Amino acid sequence: MSRGASRLTVLAGPTAVGKGSVTAWVREHHPEVWISVSVTTRRPRPEEQDGVHYHFVDDAEFDRLVAADALLEWAVVHGVHRYGTPRRPVDEALAEQRLALLEIDLQGARQVRRRMPQARFVFLAPPSFEELERRLVGRGTETAQERERRLRTAHEELAAEREFDVTVVNRRVAEAGERLVELMEYGEA
Predict the structure, then answer these.
(1) DSSP state of 54
(2) What confidence tens digit (pLDDT) does each residue in 132-164 have?
């Protein structure tokens, strides 16, 4: 794919791999990349802003979006909260020929693959499972019980790597972010 071509890129990977950090780096250093803002029923973390990191909605609003077929994908993540991608902004970004990025979970990526198989699917992987566990514990935003649930889910998510077009290992956020943008601009080299 040549520079300037527009194609949806889907970034997914296990919990705590740094999807949000890599996406935030891309947002800061590559403003030409349009990044979807997902909706979620979970409560915001202390540093998160509504409309920037997520659109935080209640269950009734999420139900309304599902019923109206207004979400490109949606899923229950970690058995607790729902997350989804509003469809209209994605369609608009692609119609404008913008580089477009979705940062979503594995279930969502699978749904997008069924609806938009022409998208590029990028798996963000940790350098090791031990590093993934260290990052999850280090961010301090989950209870011990929730960390254990997320780590069990992470094993399943890591096994899905082969479903993706390309893997980017997140050793350092800036390196992973640059690699992601290169893939978006030029495709696989």
Answers:
(1) B
(2) 888 877 777 778 888 888 888 888 899 999 999
The model's pLDDT over 84-129, given as tens digits with 9 standing for 90+, comes to: 999 999 999 999 999 999 999 888 999 999 999 999 999 999 999 8
Residue ranges in the chain assigned as alpha helix (H): 19-29, 59-67, 87-95, 106-115, 129-139, 144-159, 173-186
Angle in degrees, 0-180, between the axes of helices 173-186 and 19-29, rounded to the nearest 10: 70
Listing from the earlier edge strand, what are the strands of the sheet with 55-56? Answer: 55-56, 39-40, 81-86, 71-77
Domain CATH number, residue 69: 3.40.50.300
CA-to-CA distance for 19 and 170, rounded, in angstroms? Answer: 9
Does residue 3 belong to any structural domain of this protein?
no
pTM score, two decimals?
0.86
**CA-to-CA distance for 80 and 10, rounded, in angstroms?**
23
- The count of domains in the chain is 1
Which pLDDT belongs to residue 2?
38
Residues 6+ apart with CB under 8 A from 170: 13, 17, 18, 21, 22, 124, 125, 126, 127, 176
